[in-house]
Write a structure and sequence with these properties.
The protein is of the alpha+beta class. The protein is 25% helix and 27% strand. The chain is elongated, with a radius of gyration of 18 Å.
Amino acid sequence: MASQTHQDQKTEHPETVDTEPVAQHVCGRIRTLRSQKGWTLEQLSTASGVSRSMLSQIERGTANPTLVVAYRIAQAYSLTLADLVETPTGTTKIDVIRSDDRSYLFRDDRQCRIRTLSPLHLEKDVEFYELRLRPNGVLNSAPHFEGTREFLTIEKGTVRLTSADESSELKPGDSAHYPADVPHKIENIGRGEAMAFLVDIYSRAPAPRG
């Protein structure tokens, strides 16, 4: 999953420091506007010229957009920069992710459908996904950040999990915990759609190599 955030890097070069309150608001507003439009990350990327991986980082609050990037995003929404940083009139402590909210679709193609289940602007070291693999569908992932691990729980179907040179077949009710800082993939080896829940846990500090 996080391989998506390592790929397609363009020239945005956002700041990767902890976000200040105003920056946090901008990151959340970008996601809210995308939700209101009913756009996927891919659609916003096409409209703004900002890579999907960069948009994902910004919406999660793990990167602050530069003025150039913020301007591109504002233009995609037909807004000015002032409109984009508009201060909210109120806040809520309950963050609901609706099942039909397409802004949480991370990927949707002939291979698989990945929907984010964790609030985009909260956790920075844990990501929670719903994964649906079409028959014969495969989710190939390049190594994530050093020390990253994944938890996979199968809800429906049969899949083959491969992490580095090890593989295991998983069926409904099975769970697996494995290194994700190596090449890994999840394959649907059943006849119907496979559905699973996937959690990415990023290391707070680089894991030692031994």
